[in-house]
Write a structure and sequence with these properties.
This protein is of the alpha/beta class. The protein has two domains: 2-250, Alpha-Beta Barrel (TIM Barrel); 294-358, Arc Repressor Mutant, subunit A, CATH 1.10.10. It is 39% helix and 21% strand. It is built from 15 helices and 14 strands. It has helices at 27-43, 64-71, 93-101, 116-122, 128-140, 159-172, 189-195, 209-225, 244-250, 277-282, 295-303, 314-319, 321-329, 344-348, 350-355; strands at 2-8, 49-56, 81-86, 106-112, 146-152, 176-181, 229-232, 235-237, 255-258, 263-265, 269-273, 287-292, 333-336, 339-342. The strands form three sheets. A nine-stranded mixed sheet has the order 7-8-6-5-4-3-2-1-9, with helices on both faces. A three-stranded antiparallel sheet has the order 10-11-12, with no helix packed on it. A two-stranded antiparallel ribbon has the order 13-14. Helix 6 (159-172) packs parallel to helix 8 (209-225). The longest helix has 17 residues, at 27-43. The chain is globular and about 55 Å long. The protein starts with a strand and ends with a helix.
Length: 358
């Protein structure tokens, strides 16, 4: 069974921290994009699909008719899991009822923070009350499989304000939470400003790396106390409520991506589509950068992100004996039976560990 990722990179505004290939584009391009997306999905030699994930961008702002055109080309309805990424403030009862009719049974809310002063500085327009109302609305319409995204490290964020956001998680009781540490790179306006020592977008008020790590660690503990356990570096869930689609990425199961900057993996090859919507609509075949996968390396690089870790084969224990021994001695990896996994400290230095398996 394959997973299906559908990229919809259109937003009503570009958030300062966002480093994805998404943004505000002309309406005409959005119309052309939907046509190209429907065409790409229609031309794919389908087998079976059991999970669907609509990401972005803000796919929740998509017109009902466009969503129906896109999803009607994906086989497997009803899917085991079909996720819609949504920006708080874009959800209505009519829209959710249409999602349900088309097979959507999970919603991922890009909340990022429940503190108004932090949200304003990122360009977000919702409030904690908006999120609370929409979580209730989703439940009333039959969607209780909800994820809430949070970001540790937003400008002006403190231990106290971070605690406020974590208290809202306890109040709303979602089955799934994603916690990301702010990425500082040149692909976002905020990240670029931080790197240039600039003043815009609250760059001088971005917490230190140590403070961001401390907030992440506080979230691990607070969520665990609420019964929401970490099962992947950035993902936490109540028992049995892990994201079926995202688990495919970390377990090296096949998935196919459609739309701009979408990535695919068929078990042997990896490829991605043209990055921007403008490039995507102009290309008869948007697939680019086809490379052969290396399961031996990827098993560790991807699988160690999971809290359960990986189960190396006998030859893999031997091939990677030196880095495994080193990281176990350093307290970054631990062995239990036939499994190998990151320690709590190892999670914080995971990139250093992953690099040794490439």
């Amino acid at each position: 069974m394959s997973g299906v990722y559908i990229s919809y990179p259109f937003c009503s505004q570009k958030c300062t921290y966002c480093n994805f290939a998404s943004g505000v584009f002309p309406r005409q391009l959005e119309t052309q994009y939907v046509d190209a997306l429907v065409r790409e999905i229609g031309e794919y030699p389908w087998g079976t699909a059991d999970t669907v994930y609509l990401g972005g961008g803000t796919p929740s702002q998509m017109a009902d008719a466009d969503l129906e055109r896109i999803l009607s080309g994906v086989p497997g309805l009803p899917w085991k899991e079909a996720t819609m990424e949504a920006a708080p403030g874009s959800i209505t009862r009519e829209r959710v009822r249409n999602w349900r009719r088309l097979g959507i049974n999970r919603v991922s809310l890009g909340v990022q923070s429940f503190v108004s002063s932090e949200l304003v500085r990122t360009g977000r327009k919702h409030t904690a009350a908006t999120v609370e109302a929409e979580v209730s609305l989703l439940g009333d319409c039959g969607i209780d499989n909800i994820n809430i995204d949070l970001i540790a490290g937003l400008p002006g964020q403190t231990v106290q304000s971070w605690s406020e956001s974590l208290q809202w998680i306890e109040r709303l009781q979602p089955p799934h939470v994603s916690v990301y540490m702010l990425e500082v790179d040149a692909d976002s306006r905020l990240g670029s400003e931080v790197l240039l020592n600039g003043q815009r977008y609250g760059a001088p008020d971005v917490p230190s790396d140590d403070a961001i790590v401390a907030m992440y660690e506080d979230a691990v503990d607070a969520l665990a106390e609420q019964g929401i356990a970490r099962y992947e570096i950035s993902n936490f869930a109540r028992p049995g409520r892990e994201s079926l689609h995202n688990l495919k990425y970390w377990r090296l199961d096949p998935y196919i991506g459609f739309g701009a900057d979408a990535h695919s993996f068929d078990g042997q090859w990896r490829w991605q589509n043209a990055e921007t919507p403008a490039e995507y609509v102009e290309m008869p075949d948007p697939r680019m950068d086809r490379i052969e996968a290396n399961p031996g390396e990827e098993k560790f690089f991807v699988g160690l992100r999971l809290s359960a870790g990986v189960k190396p084969a006998p030859e893999e224990w031997e091939a990677f004996a030196e880095p495994i021994k080193h990281f176990v001695e350093e307290g970054l990896l631990e062995r239990e039976g036939g499994s190998l996994r990151l320690t709590r400290r190892g999670v914080l230095l995971s990139n250093e560990v992953f690099a040794e398996f490439l």
